[in-house]
Amino acid sequence: xxxxxxxxxxxxxxxxxxxxxxxxxxxxxxxxxxxxxxxxxxxxxxxxxxxxxxxxxxxxxxxxxxxxxxxx
Length: 72
Prior knowledge:
Layout: H1 12-69
């Protein structure tokens, strides 16, 4: 029976250290995740703006081509 208790009880600093490291990990993960999310949103907005610009350019070219095909 004494062999079971031979492992010992962790020191009190163990009960402070583990939660602190856990909280630091959660905060660091939140910060990195928030930055990644902001970067992804900015990228998707930039892609959407480029897509809109391409679509407007195509529409302008089509309008110019259709105007050139009309008899005067």
